[in-house]
Amino acid sequence: MSAHQAYSFFQSVERSFDKAAKFTNWDLGILEQIKACNSVYQMRFPIKKDDGSIEVIEAYRVQHSQHKSPCKGGIRFSDEVNQDEVMALASLMTYKCAIVNVPFGGGKGGIKINPRKYSEYELEKITRRYTAELVKKNFIGPGIDVPAPDYGTGPREMAWIVDTYASLRPGEIDAAGCVTGKPITQGGVRGRTEATGLGVFFGIREVCNMEDVMKKLGLTLGIEGKTIVVQGLGNVGYHSAKFFREAGAKVVGLAEYEGAIYNADGLNEDDVFQHRKKTGSILNFPGATNLAKNTDALELECDILIPAALENVINGDNAQRVKAKIVGEAANGPCTPEADEVFTQKGILCVPDMYLNAGGVTVSYFEWLKNLSHVRYGRMEKRFTENLNGHILGQIEELSGKKVSDKERQFIMHGPEEQDLVHSGLEETMISATREIMAVWNANPAIPDMRTAAYISAINKVATSYAELGIFP
Ligand code: GLU
Fold this sequence. Notes:
Elements: H1 9-21, H2 28-35, E1 39-48, E2 54-63, E3 71-72, E4 75-77, H3 83-99, E5 105-111, H4 120-136, E6 145-146, H5 155-168, H6 195-208, H7 211-217, E7 227-231, H8 235-246, E8 250-256, E9 259-262, H9 269-279, E10 289-291, E11 304-307, E12 326-328, H10 337-346, E13 349-351, H11 353-356, H12 359-373, H13 382-400, H14 406-413, H15 418-443, H16 450-469
Helix pairs in contact: 1-3, 1-16, 3-16, 4-5, 6-8, 6-12, 6-15, 12-15, 15-16
């Protein structure tokens, strides 16, 4: 806990939960059960490093809720990992899945290492050993608990996990569904890489298309022309920036942990990414102004601020200085409960993490379904749809005596590929979730913020599930 935080991360999640629970009528016992982390597995194991020395690694897997199976949530590699953090993140997964109607319980894993300080071979050993420990305790499996990428991990680590799992469970036909975020060749789904960033974009776009919301914030309708600042140029930040820019918004500020840059005319996330790759720093990007600290970016003048890095970055200390009208939480837990209070006072709309960044787990759900069904999306219907569309178009042209342009023809004829279906499923999920949460909020003017409305929506769904299941005697 740092000086500015009165609460640990898990306590912050509990506080937000309690704030929302007051607006529901659920039995206190059910609320208590929803809040609690059901299983916490803390482990230590040794690995031999490249120089021959032995290091003991600290790692966790937390299963917050089993009201639906399997549990679902990423694995993070960071030297900030601790039990409280993994518990908080696992809880957020339960609420996140409930909000976007993904039928999983919440889980999360963490390994306390800075991946930059290990060779690829050492990282592989750590990941494989971690997976073997999970297998030994029955903490992983397509019907038990399904990890995914998170901060510091990606498709490479997921490939090591699925390979280790499959070799320890020979003959398990659904082994590929033991983890998501895998490379395509290992059972991954097209569209998973950009999923969280695209979900952030779809969610904010839907909010920006709501007339009453924009009017209250003094903003014009739509994404076009809005100014955006993104903190974090990892997978989530990079893709969020990309989709906003492509939709006509101006990304005026970008931050990474060595500092931040600003350009009122807009920045191209890929040029900045390449610059950072070449020079080792986001700073000194041609045409942009340097800001000394990455947190300075949070205080920049803009319409929409997207914190896409780590938790607790906007807190009681700096929330007063946030100038954005909308804060879109692409990271997990970037704003503390103290920040929420400041936002309510200042009329800033904070679009909460546990729904806004649910694109990752939504597409993970699609990947898991693909693994269980053993067939690529689009394989059965693509050709059929193209033949049917071709036939309809031919009939229209014949009856009308007119021809459509080549561009229109291509668009109408096109049968869905895997990525089209995944993007469309994600778009539908994010739009419905935004509307659902806004409806909860609009139904009761006493609800102070969108996070509380999102929690109420999540609590109602999880509690209904417990109530309908009955509690095992
Ligand atoms: N780590 C991501 C999250 O925090 C994705 C989890 C998943 O796909 O299971 O939502």
